[in-house]
Write a structure and sequence with these properties.
The protein is of the alpha/beta class and about 290 residues long. It has helices spanning about 25-35, 45-55, 90-95, 105-115, 155-170, 185-195, 230, 240-250, 280-285, and strands spanning about 75, 80-85, 140, 175-180, 210-215, 220-225. It has a single domain, classed as 3-Layer(aba) Sandwich (Uracil-DNA Glycosylase, subunit E), CATH 3.40.470. It has 9 helices and 6 strands; from the N terminus they run ααββααβαβαββααα. Strands 1-3-2-4-6-5 form a 6-stranded mixed sheet, with helices on both faces.
């Protein structure tokens, strides 16, 4: 049996030099990540993830699945935050890292290729937690941290998970631009800032590459989810993804101190995985995962 491989250092945090300015941020994200991994607020999701990890897909029968909630991944000094929907059953639920391991042509590779072209990632693929992927000035989180049955989290489950996104955002001091991958992630972010007392009227409309300047000083950009359903049908193309990250670059302005070191990944990680539609309807968007 192939046992999951731990991230460098064995704690899910990738090696960095000592005494960096971002150490406190890394510590905060480590604490948040541990809380995410140990979360049991949604019995339906926890039961489903554990069952998928037990039964497995035939192609991965020799692997030990992660099978737990999945924390965010990326640069602790990130100014760009991406919010996906949820782990896929045999993707991040298998590997323990967001948008990782769903194979060539999957959502992870499609997203990382776009981030690589825009200078936010050092390689254009996301195959397993020890593949050397580093994000620069970017961090990837999710609206829901457990793989949902049929890729459809309930409104209650989305609400239960919001405190995790809130905690990660609170631990990321430099976020200026938020790219929401799909309508559910877009709405989850708006719900989160509303909980913080920031009400935007009229409510921003979700649309691909549509940009909204918010009163909290952040810029929100909508993006179709890079699911196979969207990319294989041409609903989402590489040039369309390029347009989103070009807008993100313009909104960010000059590059700051963030870079390809000091990554934070899955806490207590094990091994290699993961998954929108445009938002024409909430029902169709819920069939997609991050």
């Amino acid at each position: 049996m192939v046992r999951p491989r731990s991230a460098p250092g064995g704690d899910g945090l990738q090696a960095v030099p000592e005494a960096r300015d971002g150490d406190l941020t890394r510590i905060a994200l480590r604490v948040v990540g541990e809380a995410i991994v140990s979360c049991d607020r949604c019995a339906r999701l926890r039961t489903y993830c554990a069952e998928i990890a037990r039964v497995k897909r035939r192609a991965f029968r020799d692997e030990i699945y992660w099978g737990k909630p999945v924390p965010g991944f990326g640069d602790p000094q990130a100014r760009l935050l991406l919010i996906g929907l949820a782990p896929a059953a045999h993707g991040a639920n298998r590997t323990g890292r967001v948008f990782t391991g769903d194979g060539p042509g999957g959502s992870g590779d499609f997203l990382m290729a776009a981030l690589h072209r825009a200078g936010f990632a050092n390689i254009p693929t996301a195959r397993h937690p020890n593949d050397g992927l580093r994000l620069a000035d970017a961090f990837i989180a999710a609206a829901v941290r457990c793989a949902p049955p049929a890729n459809k989290p309930t409104p209650e489950e989305i609400a239960n998970c919001l405190p995790h996104l809130d905690a990660e955002m609170a631990a990321l001091p430099n976020v200026r631009v938020v790219v929401a991958l799909g309508r559910i992630s877009f709405d989850a972010y708006l719900q989160l800032i509303r909980r913080r007392g920031i009400v935007v009227k009229p409510k921003p409309a979700f649309g691909h590459a549509v940009t909204h300047a918010l009163p909290n000083g952040q810029t929100l950009i909508g993006c179709y989810h890079p699911s196979r359903q969207n990319t294989n049908t041409g609903r989402l193309t590489a040039p369309m993804m390029n347009a989103v990250f070009a807008r993100a670059r313009r909104a960010l302005g000059p590059v700051g101190q963030a870079g390809l070191v000091g990554q934070v990944g899955q806490v207590g990680s094990r091994r290699s995985g993961r998954s929108g539609r445009s938002g024409r309807s909430r029902r169709s968007q819920r069939t997609q995962s991050s």
